[in-house]
Amino acid sequence: MFPQKYNIMRKIFFPVLLSFLLPFTALAGEGMWLPFLIGQLNEADMQALGMKMSAEDIYSVNKGSLKDAIVHFNGGCTSSIISPQGLLLTNHHCGFSAIQSHSTLQNNYLQDGFWAKKQSDELRNDHLVATFIDRIEDVTQEILAGVTDKMTTKQRQNKIAQNIKAFKKAYAKKKYEEILIKPFFKGNQYILFVTITYTDVRLVGAPPSAIGKFGADTDNWEWPRHSGDFSLFRIYANKDNLPADYSPDNQPLRPKHYLPVSLDGVETGDFTLVYGFPGRTDEYLPSFAVKQIQDVIDPARIEIRDHALKIMDKAMRADPAIRLQYASKYARIANYWKKWIGERTGLKKTHAVAKKEKIEAEFIQKLAQKPQLAQKYGDLLDEMDGKYQEIEFLAVYREYFHELFFRNIEIFKPANSLRRFLAKANQENYQPLASDTKKSLERFYKDYQVGVDREVFKSLMQLFTDNVCTAYFPDYLLANRYLEGYDTEQMATEFYDKSIFAHPEKLYQLIDEKKTDEIKKDPTYRLFVDIIDAYRTKLTPEYNGIKAPLDSMQRQYMAALMEVLPEKKFYPDANGTMRVSYGQVEGYQPKDGVQYLPKTYLSGVIAKYVPGDYEFDLPQRLLDLYEAKDYGRYAENGRLPVNFLGSNHTTGGNSGSPVIDAYGNIIGLNFDRVWEGTMSDLNYDRSICRNIMVDIRYVIWIMDKYAGAQRLVDEIKFVHPKAGQKSRKPWDEKHPKKKKRRHRWW
Ligand code: ARG
Ligand code: ASP
Questions:
Q1: Which of 41, 257, 656, 739 is the most exposed place for a label (fewest CB within 10 A)?
Q2: Using CA positions, which residue lies closest to atom 6 of ligand 1?
Q3: Domain spans of the chain?
Q4: Which one of 225, 650, 672 would you pick to mutate in the ligand 2 pocket, going by the greatest count of ligand atoms within 8 A of its CB?
Q5: pTM score, two decimals?
């Protein structure tokens, strides 16, 4: 607190002091940094927060480093290597479909969990890949060579595409390496990633869903949390330790690095580092764009999903069979529905629009002092504002198309499968294509209730006809009187009751008998074809006509911000590439008068237990272990830690990311964020943005005590860095010669 007598001084000095401190203090916790630039940008900041490693320990091209243990898991999640035998740790929700694919009613691994007793029991997955990053380089010069400010967007795109092609052709890489070049800072910078992808990734272990998904939708995006959201895989390689498709001769990968597991636990204030592959953020939008998301786009999305979810929920409550069929679909739709609601609340609560307006005011003020830049960028924000206004209704319609026809109304999924099938099928390939199509249709219909979908259709079509301008309607709707009175029951009769897509047996028969003309005559098929057509020919060209110049303005605005406010540290938006976030273990204040502590324990899991409930049931064995307080070396003052909170900047894609301590050991597993802070994708705010992690001790306790997976526990290297036990880098052990060089590990 500021003592009273300094009041006047405070008035004079505080703003000055603040303007010095702001760029720096505001950043602790904020940012998703490129690992190869940490030495330049973050090392000092991280060490000030308590990190004992050097930037070289985090990312190095010359020697093993943490980066060699970080693995992109099937392109969408993150995972990490935690043993010298390629054992891979990720979330349960990231491994979910792999676990599901091996589950049957007899062997229900989703429900009961799965633990491979020996290596030969580990289960092969044909469509699962694990990608390492070998090296990262800035290739902006090469990719932007010959690109000028005078070029049109199209010319610029063409030149860049040409340069990328030439670069890739000339770049010397090994046979098993791949090259990825991605735009950063809205296309002002280009970065190269050389990747190595392994294709033999086997399922090793998973807890029952009652542990891995404990709390399901009710707890999703919420704190306090009590989930054991983890699963285990293993990467296999050929005899040269290189990527190879599945073969019984493949051997467990010998990784360049694996993460030791710290059993020392976490306390408030401890340094944390999250290493992973965040998917997408938009931190440099102007105020009016954020306002548009907050007041127009998010509400539209939320309203659409509100309708769909209400109908599903009612049906699921009334019938346990439907509950089973719709659980996973419901979870998927509810996930982002809930996120957007939290995002809006958080944006408002942290005055995100006003905050961006302040940055813009500062930008304009600084601009005025630099006539040359003022000439170049002076009108930029006004022009962007105009474009955002122009694009608004089209952006909303786009949400309608995506949400209704490609997501929430289910009957268009089989219609789409048939559309693709009929587009590809010819005399020769008809049979095999038909059999593939039927297989995917069968998977779809297994969890389909036409009655539920029919209600969703009616409800959402009412929204569509009420809110979308007829100029963008599919022709089939226009041509068939549906505009007169918008009778959704009449539509449902035609598109459900009279459609073959509501009668799979009939559909299969038509496929078998090659009666493709009859399929093409189906009203739902015809409607869907026209939906695609309306999307492609009516909506998209108009939308892109505004979006393309807007993107180019956004790129200029980004460059301008960096040029005009050089004292600020900028980090690039997430784009699915490898990043480092860092912060501390800490709780937060979700609302006035409420303080959240940063750690939860097994007693909290038990307190939420509802026998037989589909979200909060628990396996008997967990209850027994709790009764016996059998926590072994994983306990903390007689309690078993479960989840914890931190101020690390994360987003979708960071799930499964290892949480690393000050010394380079794994202490947790990232899996979610708190509800109030989901607006971190647009406006990170240290006060309420928190990521949620599983305590690594809970993970290992379940492997060890719950599952008895001793052989896996034995692979892991355990350390006690806080107690002073030296956790040496595994690469030092493998290269004893190098040991003389005496790296300081902390
Ligand atoms: N909210 C987390 C994420 O965005 C977890 C989602 C999985 N869990 C669920 N109940 N849907 O991915
Ligand atoms: N749950 C998210 C994921 O699956 C992480 C997040 O959005 O915080 O990647």
A1: 739
A2: 335
A3: 31-129+199-282+584-734, 287-557
A4: 672
A5: 0.91
